[in-house]
Amino acid sequence: MPKITALLFDCDNTLVLSEELAFEACADLINKICAERNVEKRFTGESLIQEFVGQNFRGMLTTLQKEYGIKIAPDDMEKYVLMEEDAVIAKLKAALRPCPGVDAQLDALVASDKYLLSVVSSSALRRVRASIEKVGQDKYFPGDVVFSAATSLEKPTSKPDPAIYLHALKKLGKTAKESVAIEDSKSGTLSGTRAGIKVIGYVGPYADDKKAEMAKVLTDAGAVVIMRDWSEFPAALKKIEAGEV
């Protein structure tokens, strides 16, 4: 059983409670894009979360093009991606909070000095850095240990593509077998699992009446253990380290 030496954290709704804020900002822009292309469908932050949780903005626009038969020129795509980043970062800087209990776990992990801690996200690097800086979590992730599927790769992508996890492992000099990922979405869990990494599924930020359903979604996507609260993290990690899952 290889020793676990690296912990790879998703950012949105895993480290910080950003999804709701981000999707609100996103909905305004997507509705404008739809209106300009005569698509009648309109989104709220909530309906976007249900449809696209775990995907970055580029991924959402790609899906929209397929589903509604609309065309977004490459130049427009880049323009929209930047506009969305600006809108989301402004919202996050105003109101972002950490996920309950996560900082205590990060403190304990840093104190144990047993693991390399990294952030592996679908969101743009600028947004991820703004998020962790806003809540003071940048101290847990010093140096080049923050990776973005939208920014860090030569060809931008989004989870569930495993490319960002494979890239992070390579840059960190770690193997999948000595790493554990923590994810809150189906696409993120699939991304980690497809990269050969064992995933802890976190359902804390979901509404209470959705937690059981999401636990099943994440388990079906490959999560080997589910936690409802960050206080359950040490036990979840222990299970993986003991080879029980």
From TrEMBL:
Pfam families: HAD_2. SUPFAM superfamilies: HAD-like. Gene3D superfamilies: HAD superfamily/HAD-like, Putative phosphatase, domain 2. GO terms for molecular function: phosphatase activity. InterPro entries: CbbY-like (IPR044999), HAD-like_sf (IPR036412), HAD-SF_hydro_IA (IPR006439), HAD_2 (IPR041492), HAD_sf (IPR023214), PGP-like_dom2 (IPR023198). Coiled coil: none annotated. It comes from the Eukaryota. This is Phosphorylated carbohydrates phosphatase. The lineage of its organism: Eukaryota, Fungi, Dikarya, Ascomycota, Pezizomycotina.
